[in-house]
């Protein structure tokens, strides 16, 4: 888990900042990994490797704002199910696949491997809507 993302190598590609979060061999098949950015628990990503491909999503489930998607159930249809309330999201689009549960979705981030390292698009720092709403009260 990244405790302070400022210590990790960064590079800019196509105007976006990418951060080296791990060595390729540290991200194993069908297991989720959590990384925290900006020393802020509301800025987390989850990384998964499925059939050799990497996927990166926001780790905060928008249903109840829980940071457990990295511990979720990884499904064969490239979705992950939140282990707490069972909302299921596409790893490709971030969309909730069961629209009866709601239309909330996750941010999806670009991710790639290069020279044995995993690089992920660094999330932009924006206070979450639920935090802004709570601060106004």
Q: Key terms for this structure?
A:
mainly beta
How is this structure best described in words?
The chain has 137 residues and is mainly beta. The chain has a single domain (5-136), classed as Rieske [2Fe-2S] iron-sulphur domain (Rieske Iron-sulfur Protein). Helices cover 6% and strands 35% of the residues. The protein has one helix and ten strands; from the N terminus they run E-E-E-E-E-E-E-E-E-E-H. The protein has one helix at residues 129-136; strands at residues 10-13, 16-23, 32-36, 44-50, 53-58, 73-75, 79-81, 88-90, 111-114, 117-121. Strands 1-2-10-9 form a four-stranded antiparallel sheet, with no helix packed on it. The chain has a three-stranded antiparallel sheet with strand order 3-4-5, with no helix packed on it. It has a three-stranded antiparallel sheet with strand order 6-7-8, with no helix packed on it. The longest helix is centred in the C-terminal third of the chain and has 8 residues, at 129-136. It is globular, with a radius of gyration of 15 Å. The N and C termini lie far apart (32 Å).
